[in-house]
Amino acid sequence: MSFQFVETSSLKIDGYARVAPQEQMERIRSLGLSLDGARVVHLNSTAVGGGVAEILKSMVPLMDDSGPDASWMVLEGAPEFFEITKRLHNLLQGAEGSLSKKEYETYVGYNERLAKSIKDRGVEADVWVLHDPQTLPLASFLPEGSKIIWVCHIDTTLPNQRVIKQLAPLMQKADRVVFSLPQYVVDGLDTSRVRIIPPAIDPLTTKNKEPKLKTVRDTLSRIGLDPDRPMMSQVARFDRWKDPWGVIDAYRMVKESVPDVQLALLGVIEAIDDPEAYGVLDTVVEYAKGDSDIHLFSDVNIVGEPEVSAVQKGAEVIIQKSLREGFGLSVAEAMWKGTPVIGGNCGGIRIQIEHGRTGFLVDTVEECATAMLQILKDPKQAKVMGKLGREHVRQKFLMTRILGDYLSVCSELLAPSSLPDMGLAYAEAAGE
Ligand code: UDP
Questions:
Q1: Same domain, yes or no, for 265 and 342?
Q2: To test the ligand 1 pocket, which listed residue (311, 329, 341, 351) has its Cβ within 8 A of the most ligand atoms?
Q3: Could you list the residue range(s) of the whole structural domain that residue 292 is in?
Q4: pTM of the model
Q5: In which band, very low, low, confident or very high, does the pLDDT at 50 lie, cut at 50, 70 and 90?
Q6: Residue whose CA is closest, atom 14 of ligand 1?
């Protein structure tokens, strides 16, 4: 297995001072200084599609600008490897089953070859930041002397315990293991090495910058949505844990009393590490059949950042009806745009939405439909909710907070004596 470097656009941390809380900017400056020149390499399995790529395309250049010498690599796996790692992903989120000995050996074997290819090409780092299960076994094969952070972006609240037993020894090889929430910390780890860092969004990307109203309307029209009719949307990969069928069920209940409502499901398929997406999409197409007000989007040539932005800004309601959700960047993205969000009452969605204040948390299709109706029928309350949601994201879920958290972990590994702050900002983010 090989890898390649990902080119990122150059970003300047100073540009964030106008949107981010001042204390986050100061924290980055002092931590960045303590890490000046340290080589930090992030490694994951895809440069496009999904939340991890979304975070890295901003965090890596911003980390680079703040002090360390930061770069980003993606592994180049074969379909056989991604089939196994997608299974691992599902098992970590609680699916039934297990990984056979042969599959486990294949998974580890690919990473062993990846380590060799890294060595052969002379890539070195002071800190390796390995993201998600695809890269976990690499922690056993990288050269001694460099520090290793393994980051689990998955909702492991109720994982399959058999797979945890298989993976915990691999996790123990890392100097630090990062989860998005305290309840995700799996059994069998040395907790002194565990850190909690929830994800965050970049407020200055095309997707998240405040769009003009006219641009929003034009964009919606261009992709076949009617800007003059109420619209609800879920922006999420076609994945069984995101429950697109449940969203359609709730929409159908709402449609009985709001007949002109439209539903847009945006799930562009481009992440090569998600081989199940086409199968899920097929079932959703079938499920939505016969209703021309349900719009499904999976083509990257039709939906890119401007379209996601327009939908998240222009929708009356954004839904993220996940059954498991490591974090759910789409939630923060929509809240940042002042749009009310209804989220599944699970995982990382719970630390973003305060039920009834900054959005709604729902456990069932019926609850989802009730919340949809409440938002559609009371635009005044929806506006207040949107405003509170935006401020919540500003304080806790912007790129500047997560960058500070990662710099803090790197700093405790490389420059423990000059560590200015031991506590991660997550503690505040989680309201603890
Ligand atoms: N996304 C997108 N286009 C789509 C669907 C999703 O750009 O059609 C983006 C979405 O805006 C978000 C990311 O993909 O930034 C999904 O991240 P999230 O944490 O919500 O879920 P994940 O895919 O990591 O499970």
A1: yes
A2: 329
A3: 213-396
A4: 0.90
A5: confident
A6: 50
